[in-house]
Amino acid sequence: MIQSLALARTSEATRESARTPARPSAAPDRPKMRAEALRAHFGKTEVLKGITLPVESTTVTAIIGPSGCGKSTFIRCLNRMHEVVSGARVAGKVLLDLQDIYAPDVDPVRVRRRVGMVFQKPNPFPTMTIRENVLAGLKLNGLRPKDTEELVERALRQVALWDEVKDVLSRSGTSLSGGQQQRLCIARSLALEPEVLLMDEPCSALDPIATARVEELIHELRERYTIVIVTHNMQQAARVADFTAFFYLGELVEYDRTDVIFTRPSEKKTEDYITGRFG
Amino acid sequence: MALLGAEVNAGDVLFRGVAALFAITIVLVLGAMAIQMWVAARPSIAHSGWRFIVGRDWDPVRDSFGALPFIYGTLVSSLLALGIAVPISLGVAVFLTELAPPWLRSPVSFLVELLAAVPSVIYGLWGIFALAPFLRNHLEPFLGKTLGFLPLFQGPHQGFGMLAGGIILAIMITPTISSVSREVLRAVPDSLREGALALGSTRWEALRHTILPYARSGIVGAIILGLGRALGETMAITMVIGNRTDISVSLFAPGYTMASVIANEFTEATGDVYLGALAEIGLLLFAVTLILNVVARLLVWRVGRAPEGARG
After folding, report:
1. Could you tell me which of B257, B256, B258 has the C-alpha nearest to residue B285?
2. Which position among A172, A245, B121, B224 has the lowest Cβ density within 10 Å, counted as fewest Cβ atoms?
3. For A198-242, how does the pLDDT look when each residue is reduced to its tens digit (9 = 90+)?
């Protein structure tokens, strides 16, 4: 199953990159994901107040906004992780390839397999070795691929971690530095060959050098994956994202190409935020 | 100003002294008990030597003291109790931390912990009037019919015996194991849970491959605390185990435990050697439970400290 997904996605990716060489100048014909009137609650508090937002295929979409604006909640809704917390509810639609992931017959486990997630704080499994961490997604799903060594190497090379850890693969995942741990977590997600990768402030716990490496990585992954990244760092959004959405108090204020958002925003609120007048 | 400082200091010194005194008292009491039992046991140690631990014959009239049946009874009934209580307790702990809706968590944990508050003589009475007849008339015939090819389930159905003892102990240690395991599972960081779920695992897969391995040493600690309680339990098990100085493979047969023999025979023990023999049993039991509890504490501590640093 993994294999066939991989095949489907690669061919799509090549088609895409043939048509749009470096940077998608305009929105491709159909978005990979799309939130429609998405509302999210924690208990009685409404955290997202009806968000409608596309996520274009094989691009990087950044979600920016001040603390508490619902940006993390939003991406947690994209792979049904929001509902994991008790008291959390979601209403509205999220389409993945035109299929609503909140439809009653959809298994959240399947959604999460296709839409991977990287968290704010690196969370490698401490009871597993580096190798086992990379393979964790497969193991957790009961898959036993034959060429595990190759798979581990490929996933770790994708995140540029292979050369650093190839001799210590059987050490604990938590023995690495913070930046390495985060790249390990990204490798762990990539090993499952997701179609979309959600990143919830993936650099907030990292130093500037590690941050630069992760950003470089996002740049490379964009070729093959659809990425949504939440960041409180506007420079980061400007550096890595093709599209940027600005959230404020649970509402989508503005969504456009990143260069437009950062040079000619149409909303006063957006301009105030990116020029540092609040937030 | 110097006077003021001195006064504050005096109060502090007094406070520290009193607190330290109370703390030391515990250590002294523990030490005194160990020494007292050792002294009381000396006649028996001199009389029986190693035969005390390996001998099977317990006949105070002929001054023959072999404590093996009691050691056997204590170990078997406690292990049987663990075999029953561990799966149940883990199920309770996992349900309460991972699966139950929040409104159900507190009432259920409260009820489980209430089990620990029931006096053990009540369990004993329940064992005599409800459990033993049930075992004799229903469970033991059933086990004999279905699993009777095993030596464990052969022999007459008496109700009172090792099986009844094990079941009573299991009920009594379930609160201990489940509440400690629940705390241990609660200490597992949410980020691990979410990490596993975000990789597309089911709750069960996340539990089995990430949460339980992380909590493993703490759960082992919980089990050992339960075992410690089972080893030392006296009243309830004395009322249902049958109290016969015998070593029988069958769980239907009556047995005896170390704690029970001390409670039953102490008042009628005459002579230094007889008293010493009971004290020596006490000393053995004391040592075993103490060691088990220390091990359990160490294991629980290990999981409490987050293994952030290098491991493996």
Report:
1. B258
2. B121
3. 999 999 888 888 889 889 999 989 989 999 999 988 899 999 999
Inform me whether the C-beta atom of residue A86 falls under 8 Å from chain B C-beta atoms.
yes
Domain covering B47-302 in this structure, CATH number? 1.10.3720.10
* Assembly ipTM: 0.83
Task: Tell me the sheet residues that pair with A54.
Answer: A34
Per the DSSP assignment, residues forming a β-bridge with A252 are A247
Residue A131: predicted pLDDT? 92
Domain ranges of chain B: 47-302
CB atoms within 10 A of CB B54: 12
Give every CB contact of residue A240 below 8 A, 6+ residues apart in sequence: A60, A62, A215, A218, A219, A229
Residue A240 within any structural domain of the chain:
yes
Q: B138-191 pLDDT, tens per residue?
A: 999 999 999 989 999 988 999 999 999 999 999 999 999 999 999 999 999 999
Q: What gap in Å lies between CA B122 and CA B135, rounded to an integer?
A: 18
Tell the residue number behind the tokens 């078997």, with chain if given. Answer: B76
**Residue A188 within a domain:** no
Domain of residue A102, residue span: 2-120+198-274
Given CA atoms B45, B48, B50, B56 in this order, what sign does their dihedral have?
negative
Question: Coil, helix or strand for A90?
Answer: strand
Residue A170 at interface with chain B, using a CB cutoff of 8 Å: yes
Centre a 10 Å sphere on the Cβ of residue A151 and count the other Cβ atoms it contains. Answer: 18
pLDDT, tens digit (0-9, with 9 covering 90-100), for B215-248: 988 898 899 989 999 999 999 999 999 999 989 9
Chain B contacts in chain A segment 190-249 (CB below 8 A): 192
Q: Cα separation of A12 and A2, whole Å?
A: 15
CB contact under 8 A, B210 and A84: no
**Whether the Cβ atoms of residue B85 and residue B174 lie closer than 8 Å to each other:** yes
Rounded to an integer, the average pLDDT of A29-35 is 86
User: How far apart (Å, rounded) are the C-alpha atoms in residues A255 and A52?
Assistant: 10
- Cα radius of gyration rounded to whole Å, chain A: 18
DSSP A29: S
DSSP class of residue A241 equals: -
The domain spanning residue A270 has which CATH number?
Answer: 3.40.50.300
Contact predicate A116/A198, CB 8 Å: yes
What pTM does this model have? 0.80
Helix (H) or strand (E) holding B8, with range, is: helix B2-48
Instruction: Place A3 in a pLDDT band, splitting at 50, 70 and 90.
Output: very low
* Residues of chain A positioned with their CB less than 8 A from the CB of B309: 174-175
Strands A99-100 and A33-42: unpaired
With contact defined as beta carbons under 8 Å apart, do A58 and A30 qualify?
Answer: no
Instruction: Please answer yes or no on whether B201 and A109 come within 8 Å at the CB atom.
Output: yes
